[in-house]
Amino acid sequence: MGIRKIVIVGGGTAGWMTAAALSRLAQARAVEIVLVESELIGTVGVGEATIPPFINFQDRLGIDEAEMLAAVQGSFKLGIHFVDWERQGDSYFHPFGNYGYAVDSVSFHEIWMRYRMAGDERPLHHFSPETMMAMHRRFMHQAEGEDLPAINYAYHIDATAYARFLRRYAEGRGVVRKEGKIVSSDLHGESGFVRSVTLDDGTEIAGDFFVDCSGFRGLLIENALETGYEEWTHWLPCDRAVAIPSAGDGTVLPYTRATAHSAGWQWRVPLQTRNGNGHVYCSQFMEADEATDILLKNIDGEALADPNHLRFVTGRRKKFWNKNVVAIGLSGGFMEPLESTSIHLIQSAISKLAGMLSLDGITEAQQDTFNRLLGKEFSRIRDFLILHYKATSRDDSEFWNYCRTMSIPDTLEEKIEMFRLNGQVFREEDELFAETSWVAVMMGQGIVPSRPSAMAHTLDLGKLRSEYEGMDQSIKYLVSKAKPHDQYLADYCPTAIAAE
Ligand code: FAD
């Protein structure tokens, strides 16, 4: 059966990102695309921190960066500052980009370890341009006219404003939006494919292919097709969040802050005129009232709304693509927001779908490939997230005692063992998080290699010295050339929306 009409169910970040990305098909009149959403139900509306690949999403759509950032109160993000994770009072920075650069195929962090063993006291983060820029609260895209690498960054965005921005984009290219609450769906008797959805006013919307972006509900992928869910709460035990925006104080930090508390952690995401804040916690160890109190005590600036309480179950749908339904966004799974990976997984699913979609129909091979590739991506990200909870010496609460002693997936166990042995990180296929990320979090949370690898010991430190100093100097120079982040935003993309 050919595909002539695509129905996107849901208009949150996932729904409008999908609509925007597929809108070329509508513009070329290759298919009809309809998006159904319900203002009564609304969206999750958090999801404000992103990671660098998100920039490619705007590029592919031909979206002007400054225009988009102005429309969504956007700010730049150079990484995440983790506070109190390994032990209370400790902190570290997980930067985008790399530490220094490799020499003769030896990773920079191993070269650094050798200098460190020889008495050089500079910390590893001195060799990360993004960390140093973040610490000085500065930003720039690239030093003009210089032969120095570009800065790696992502954005903080107002997720609701971003969905509105993409809605204008997609509707301008032929996607049709229908307002209404879906109350039922109808399946083909023989194939079990979804045939149509029905709104509360009785309108029936039929389609050949459905993208389920209905959020945690999973209206089609679960309610209609009963696909099943693989739960990961034993590894990622947080299952609640309480979120609240607060007034900004005029300083917009170019990084996210993630502060560990006694049964979870708190985010602070700086936008141009306000901060997004939230406390992610485990309901087995903390009540909602206590979680809200902790959040309110730890926000900078006046609260701008009532606390918004959310529930979730960490894990993933057993199949993301089932029959003629693809689940994208929270309907496909959720692994908690610690490393801002959800919007990335939406983007990744969309790019796979856009590549695999054939208007001639749906095959088993498409479904299997999509499910396998996205499944692997979920698992690798899952391991990286678990690492943050497992690698701790905190013993000040039942929650941390559980996390510190829980069993972890073999894949993660192996990664930690390899790093402890001689500082090596091996990237599995095209997994999202690269060496710097693993090194930053492992070292930041107390997993220290016993020695650098055998190959690292073959390097002559004396000969390398001027190159090593050169890296340090270049980073200092880059930071000196960057502008204060607030000023950069005011010049480049001043917000077009008022503070709430
Ligand atoms: P939703 O936003 O829930 O949208 C669902 C849509 O479906 C809505 O339009 C709704 O109206 C519609 N709908 C549902 N039922 C019906 C119905 N019956 N009829 C009609 N329409 C219907 N991600 C990041 O990348 N970075 C972060 O920093 C981050 N922080 C997060 C913090 C928390 C606490 C949570 C819970 C998530 C966070 N995420 C983050 C994830 C991010 O919010 C989501 O991935 C993103 O918002 C996509 O959500 P969605 O579009 O899948 O679902």
Structure in words:
The structure is a single chain. The chain is 36% helix and 20% strand. Helix 9 (342-356) runs antiparallel to helix 10. The mean pLDDT is 95. It has a domain at 5-75 and 157-230 and 314-380: FAD/NAD(P)-binding domain, CATH 3.50.50. With 500 residues, the protein is α+β, with helices and mostly antiparallel strands. A hairpin with a 3-residue loop joins strand 16 (264-270) and strand 17 (274-281). The protein contains 15 helices and 23 strands. The structure holds flavin-adenine dinucleotide. Residues 10-15, 36-38, 41-44, 46-50, 159, 181-182, 213-215, 217, 219, 241, 243, 278, 310, 312, 329-331, 337, 340, 342-343, 346 line the site of flavin-adenine dinucleotide.
Please tally the β strands and state the result.
Answer: 23
Largest sheet: 7 strands, mixed
Low-pLDDT runs: none
CATH level-3 fold name of the domain at 5-75 and 157-230 and 314-380: FAD/NAD(P)-binding domain
Average pLDDT over all residues: 95
Ligands: flavin-adenine dinucleotide
- Strand-pairing-aware structural class: alpha+beta
Distance between the termini: 48 Å
